[in-house]
Design a protein that fits this description.
By secondary structure, the protein is mainly alpha-helical. It contains 20 helices and 11 strands. A hairpin with an 8-residue loop joins strand 1 and strand 2. The chain binds uridine-diphosphate-N-acetylglucosamine and magnesium ion.
Length: 487
């Protein structure tokens, strides 16, 4: 008798629906469990090994980031359905079957991240604590009275660094609370806009006490008028609070297609880490800014760990949504490292696409053009492609003359899709986000292709930004603090 025929291979349609299925099973597959366990075991072994030598904190941070990846990966799988049951879910609007997916998975990232950076505290500070308190191997040392009065060498313990570290944790916790609150209650834009500025107060206070530099280097052509340094004073704190407001909000509005919130954040974190490595690897070593850049890496590596696990689930076809929690949290991680690492201007160079999206969005954000609740690109169910989403202009509600003139100009410059009727009245205009603008320029495309192209653009602009920062800046500044001085 002929053996039974093997089952037919699944068609490509059913394959894609398999991989895009939302998280329905809370258990990890055997391969996933083994991979995560191996990664975690390797990281724990590396971590244990750091106690043997000098306790190299950077290696410990790397190992903890691996643990953070595994924990986030498993927890998203285990808790996705629990979040849905609690009402934290959203519809994936750019798919044929509009399924509900778990929302607010950034909360899992934030919690794992915060626990990891707290567990990390002893690693960079261990040696100083031992030296300062005569703990560890020095327990039997008889302390002289004058040492006791000096706080038992406590002056050797880098309090300022620990204060920076703790202030960073407070700021990140505050922003995580705001994000979760927003995902739960959908807080209105005008109510939540300034909250990141309050969350940044601990950072700004530590900056004031620890660093306090509020002057900026003046470009060479302007030096005859303004001098070498221009003192901004209190305005510098206003500027840093502005960066704190801008970074989280700008990531949240460059959103709406699978994977884009996480992929842009991963690119920015990678580029910041690359910038840090330049200071750690390049001569002269140790560079005066070594500490700041090590500090930055201690916060960026675990962020990359939790983000990559989230990206696994959120990339097209998404199985979970990240929620506002992730966008705010990611933005605040960048604010924390750049303010405490004293490189907020470098961060701004890496946020150029977000800035472009914000400036381009301004007509809708500030009410000149109606702003619908969602401005994400429109899914054409017939073609399966994304097209620019539009704001309709009913005959009864046409733009005022100056706005109409500006809209037509933007249309002529190919910066907006404008549809007019025969009488010259506006019928619809595309929504003001760079995702829609990209579709206006490049034509309809699949959701994952749009995400890949925007991520590649973010990477290219960021790399160019770093190039400008370290090379072209030498044309208008005397020196670059990465150790290169013009003769
Ligand atoms: C911001 C944008 C809004 C955009 C939304 C998408 C502004 C002022 N606000 O609002 O225009 O539509 O982000 O995140 O620019 N969603 C998808 N696919 C995705 C990601 C999200 O369909 O890949 C939908 C889901 O229904 C999800 C919802 O968007 O539940 C999340 O929106 P939310 O983050 O609450 O929107 P906002 O941040 O307020
Ligand atoms: Mg959002």
């Amino acid at each position: 008798m002929a053996p039974p025929l093997p089952p037919p291979p699944p068609s490509s349609a059913s394959l894609s629906s398999l991989s895009s299925s939302p998280i329905t099973s809370t258990s990890l597959s055997r391969t996933e469990t083994l991979s995560l366990l191996s990664l975690t075991a390797a990281c724990v072994a590396v971590l244990a090994n750091t106690f043997q030598g000098d306790g190299e904190p950077l290696i410990a941070s790397l190992a903890l980031s691996g643990v953070a990846f595994s924990a986030t990966f498993a927890l998203i799988r285990w808790l996705g359905p629990t979040f849905m049951a609690a009402g934290l879910k959203g519809v994936d609007m750019s798919k044929h079957n509009k399924r509900e997916l778990p929302e607010c998975m950034g909360a899992i990232c934030a919690v794992v991240y915060l626990l990891v950076v707290i567990v990390f505290i002893p690693f960079p500070f261990y040696k100083d604590i031992v030296a300062a308190t005569s703990g560890g191997g020095n327990r039997d040392v008889v302390l002289e009275v004058e040492h006791v009065q000096q706080g038992r060498f406590l002056h050797r313990f880098p309090h300022s660094k620990l204060a920076s570290y703790l202030s960073a944790i407070i700021s990140l916790q505050s922003i995580a609370i705001l994000g979760i609150g927003d995902d739960l209650f959908d807080i209105r834009w005008r109510h939540k806009f300034f909250i990141p500025a309050f969350a940044s107060i601990p950072l700004l206070v530590v900056y004031f006490v620890d660093f306090g530099v509020t002057s900026i280097v003046v470009p060479i052509p302007l030096q005859p008028y303004l001098g070498e340094l221009f003192h901004l004073g209190a305005l510098y704190y206003v500027y840093m609070a502005g960066v704190a407001i801008f970074s989280p909000n700008s990531i949240n509005i460059l959103a709406g297609i699978n994977g884009i919130e996480v992929s842009q954040s991963v690119v920015i974190a990678l580029l910041l880490a690359l910038n840090d490595s330049l200071y750690l690897l390049a001569p002269p070593y140790p560079h005066p800014a070594t500490d700041s850049h090590l500090f930055s890496l201690y916060f960026l590596l675990p962020f990359l760990g939790v983000s990559l696990a989230l990206l696994w689930y959120n990339w097209y076809p998404a199985r979970v949504f990240v929620g506002d929690t992730y966008c705010y949290f990611a933005g605040m991680v960048f604010v924390v490292v750049s303010i405490l690492g004293h490189f907020s201007k470098t961060l701004i160079l890496l946020l150029v696409p977000q800035m472009a999206n914000f400036v381009y969005s301004a007509p809708q954000l500030f009410g000149l053009v109606p702003c619908p609740r969602h401005r994400l690109p429109r899914f054409n169910a017939r073609t399966g492609l994304l097209e620019p989403s539009v704001t309709p202009w009913p005959a009864t509600r046409q733009p005022r003359p100056p706005v109409a003139w500006a809209l037509k100009l933007l249309g002529r410059l190919h910066l907006l899709a404008v549809l007019l009727d025969d009488a010259g009245n506006f019928v619809e205009t595309s929504n003001f986000t760079i995702l829609n603008l990209w579709l206006v320029w490049r034509g309809p495309m699949r959701e994952d292709r749009l995400a890949k192209e925007i991520t590649a653009m973010q990477m290219a602009v960021g790399l160019f930004g770093l190039f400008v920062r370290h090379r072209l800046a030498l044309f208008i500044f005397d020196s670059d603090n990465w150790g290169i001085v013009i003769e």
